[in-house]
Amino acid sequence: MVRQIQFNADKPKIIDIFMYNGEPLLELRLKLLYDVVDEFICVEARDVHSGARDKQGLYVEQYAAMLEPYRDKLTILIIEDFPTPDAGTVEALQARWSHILPESAQAWYRENYHRNYAADYVRSKYVQNDVPFVPLVCDLDELPDPAIVGVFGDSFATYEKLSTAHHLIMEHFFYNFRWRYTQPFSNAYAVNEQGFQDMHGDLNRMRSIPDPGFRGGGWHGSYFLSVGGIIRKLQSNAHREFSTEQFVDPLMIRRCLRSGCNILQQEPVWVLHEHNVSALPLPLQEFHRNLVFLQEHCG
What we know:
Elements: E1 13-20, H1 25-33, E2 39-45, H2 59-62, H3 64-67, E3 74-79, H4 87-96, H5 105-116, H6 119-127, E4 133-137, E5 142-144, H7 146-154, H8 156-161, E6 166-174, E7 179-181, E8 189-190, H9 193-198, E9 213-222, H10 227-236, H11 250-259, E10 272-274, H12 282-297
Parallel strand pairs: 1-2, 1-4, 2-3, 6-9
Antiparallel strand pairs: 4-8, 5-9, 6-7, 6-8, 7-10
């Protein structure tokens, strides 16, 4: 059972945990969730998941002025170096995730390490001090709807349910808010402190498990980047199979941004539908306009 709390006086702290690698969506995330989140935990690594140390410094330093209005709620954790996994760890990772190619296993280890990095900080600040909390465990481009996040802090019945992780079932967009995928996205999740402790620091574990979910959970923005940003993402992330020349052709990427075609050239082919951007909340509409300008006019 979740421990009993005096809910009015001791409401759970809402914690937003995410990895960061320079994505433009960070500012929208902070702006959108600022009023309903008690602490943002932003984790950036000096290395990218592919293992190449090709970053020119830290993005949190490069964009420090943009972050300044949110610093009272923003905690930044830096991974100086990814550890090297032993053979047993890599084998266990491949056994657990069937989609991992042998040549990508160490890159996936780094991604998992990155996502889990905040767990010790959360345990030290909240668990050890007996503070009730609800962490949102998302990638940065998985934007929870602030309306449902507010319920996690205001409804004791909902908070109790979160002893089992609940996925946030999101509308799924590609490139910008013009292109919507037919299937929703549901890897991001919320959990309370009991469920968090049951994970033993493995925040990755619940992302692909078919647990209960909340519909209307938010918006997932896949590849919400400039052409150059998409190329950088493909060359640096754990999906090493998409880092070759055929996938990082800027002309092909720009064509897909405009027409909604599949930059990963996968089968079955994505079916993207044009979405009515004006039906989205105003902050998302504003971000969409700025992103489309970036995609059209910046490399």
